[in-house]
Amino acid sequence: MTCNLTAIEIAERTRDGRVSCVQVVKDSLERIEATDEAIGAWAFLDSDLALAQAEDLDARRRHGKPLGVLHGVPVGLKDIIDTADMPTECGSPIHAGRKPGADANVASRLREAGAVILGKTVTTEFAFMHPSKTRNPHNAAHTPGGSSSGSAAAVAAHHVPLALGTQTNGSVIRPASFCGVIGFKPSRGIISRTGVLQTSATLDQMGIFARDLGDAAALADVLGGYDPLDVATYARPKPAMATGAGAEAPVEPLFAWFDLPFNDRLNTTASSAFDELLEYLGSRVERVTTPVNFGDLIDHHRVIHEYEIWRNLEERAESHWDQLSETIKPILTRARAITEDRYAEAVAMANGADNYFTEFFNDFDAILAPASAGEAPIIGDGTGDPVFCTLWTLSGLPALSLPVLAAENDLPIGVQLIGSVEEDDRLLRTAAWLFRTIQAPGEDPTRTENRAEK
What we know:
Amidase signature (AS) enzymes; globular; disordered C terminus
């Protein structure tokens, strides 16, 4: 079975003919058939369509055509990312059966790189708060997190080596933490959002799920680039992600640990685990007292998010109010009442935080922080607290969740690393150093395993 290979290993073997793209896809489909009834990671899956993509890629190789860096690699897309050959329903009955007319920018880049878009992974309603059907692959009694629920679960369950999600608050980093995989949200503006459901033009950012750090970096290299249709992207050189992930740190990195007013929201297990990690890293971590108004940024983020999501969903919400969940209705009602002055104030404060971080990373390689408040909550208790991701999302900083801690019940707990804007390569290099430093003997330091399979 190829399901346990990394994306890079799959691409190498399909390019040199050791395994066919069709066989790789068949292995993924077999794995999904065997396990997804209990997990529910997929919103749309068409075996014939997936195999047809793989057959076309195998024919390219036989005829000596150019092959992409992700040749034959199955990838899952969060069901808010448009594809011309699959429905995109955004986790809402309002969009049931919706068929986009064109691929999203990221879908086109995946096809150009030779990836097989296997299907659409489950998202929460409009990529917001209402829980989805997906369960945590490690323990089906627990949530996989949200809103990129299916993408995180599909990678953790070895359905695919790579999947795409989005983050407006904590929707990549938190599910990665709960599901025990790598979650990578590059700097705002590196990856285009054209063709992706817009909830907040200010905050929406693309993200990646993988079980291998090199895979995450390689996918980010494929997806990154200027898109004139997305004003957040930029026409200047991008960080070399794969180079960063494979590089040795020239000196031991220095981490910052922020004493934030909401750190008391860590549960007891996570708090103890982070205390041990900080003690282990010793002088490589410096505790930082943050500006007094940092706690206020959480509310400023909420104002921006709610003000913008209402304006993006207003027409659909008013026309189909009865088809909205009882989770989102009160939030949209509150969002409708936010004034332009309050919104402008929140944006101004967010810009001030951006300026703070521009100077901050002159002294530190990365911020070390929780990726979540602890292990995944029980189903029915929500998708988890995103507060430990909010500040970094608000400022568009690159962030990684690394699966290096665990609760007493063996559920994963992620460690988050946050870097400087457009220095994603440096962040990946720092992450590789951290993996090497705390790895167990004999383990590949940049590769994770699904403990649910053990």
